[in-house]
Amino acid sequence: MKQDDLDFFKKWFSDYCKSFYSSDIEDQKNIHLKEQHTSDVRENIIRIADGLSLSNSMRILAEAIALFHDIGRFPQYAKYKTFRDSISVNHGLLGARILLEEKILQNLAESEQELIIQAVRLHNAFAVPKLEKKDIVFFIKLVRDADKLDIWRIFIEYYEGPRQDTASAIGLGLPDIPEYSGDVLSCLYRKEVASLSKIKTFNDFKLLQLSWIYDLNFKPSFRLLSERDYIDRTISKLPQTEEILNASLSLKEFVRRRI
Ligand SMILES: [Fe+2]
Fold first, then answer.
1. Residue 175: what pLDDT?
2. Lower CB count within 10 Å: N or C terminus of the chain?
3. Ligand 1 centre and the CA of 57: distance in Å?
4. Which of 254, 40, 231, 230 is nearest to 143 (CA)?
5. What pLDDT is stored for residue 201 in this prediction?
6. In the 3-class helix/strand/coil scheme, how is 57-116 assigned residue by residue?
7. What is the pLDDT of residues 181-228, one digit of tens each?
8. Which residues, in sequence order, are CB contacts of 113 under 8 Å at separation 6+?
9. pLDDT tens for residues 12-49?
10. What's the CA-to-centroid distance between 38 and ligand 1, angstroms?
11. Percent over 90 (pLDDT), the chain
12. What residues sit around ligand 1, an ion, with C-beta below 5 angstroms?
């Protein structure tokens, strides 16, 4: 894959996004959110790739995967008006299907087509899948890290900013009450990623997002997490109980060891 291919994909993607633009302000905000997210995930993946000193051809492939990773979000929102896969459709699977149906990748080598399609299909799996092809697993890890780093940004801006400016589909419909579940917090202590099925309150969701730190793969990703102060900024939006502050200390220690 060459820079020319990537330039073609960028133009294609931009036109694809535009085809979902809406005159409804709320819908447009939600579509814009995903277009901006894609652009930021691309920037993140470039920073991680550079931090890992990847070759130029791997960097271009990584950027293409970031560009397409959430392509399923656009038809998902158009049809269901939500980004919640559990009540609509798996957006990774849908994205892979679109890439095939639209034949966007057809000029690439078959191995590259497979790599991009698999990375898009599996970027949102609960855990990194065990596949035989190690190069595919590597790129899945890259895009998962770049994606998480931007999802942290989106939610922290949501916690910190004025609510009226935010895209409505961020809210998830969870009760924003002081309670949190011990069950979710205990995942942080066990260094496990919490499952979305355990989430009952918005605070649980913040804890779940912190648990993603245990699923980060690369040193440059831990550096970006730390530079952007995502742990403290999330913790400051949770009840300041002793058990939460302790969890924050062990998270920070975990990150410090990986930088
Ligand atoms: Fe996604």
1. 87
2. C
3. 23
4. 40
5. 93
6. HHHHHHHHHHHHCCCCHHHHHHHHCCCCHHHCCCHHHHHHHHHHHCCCCCCCCHHHHHHH
7. 999 999 999 999 999 889 999 999 999 999 999 999 999 999 999 999
8. 105, 106
9. 999 999 999 999 999 999 999 999 999 999 999 999 99
10. 9
11. 90
12. 70, 124
Distance 247 CA to ligand 1 centre (A): 27
pLDDT recorded at residue 106: 97
**168 band by pLDDT with thresholds 50, 70 and 90:** low
Q: What is the whole-number distance in angstroms between the Cα of residue 227 and the centre of ligand 1?
A: 23
What pLDDT is recorded for position 102?
95
Q: Please name which of 78, 86, 70 lies closest in space to residue 28, comparing C-alpha atoms.
A: 78
| Distance, CA of 38 to CA of 30 (rounded, Å) | 13
Residue 103: Cβ within 10 Å count:
9
Tell me the three state secondary structure of residue 26. helix
CA of 124 to the centre of ligand 1 (A): 6
Token pair recorded at residue 174: 């969870």
Question: Which residue in 214, 211, 182 sits closest to 194, CA to CA?
Answer: 211
* Alpha carbon of residue 69 to chain centroid: 9
- The three state secondary structure string of 165-223 is HCCHHHCCCCCCCCCCCHHHHHHHHCCCCCCHHHCCCHHHHHHHHHHHHHHCCCHHHHH
Read off the amino acid at residue 39.
S
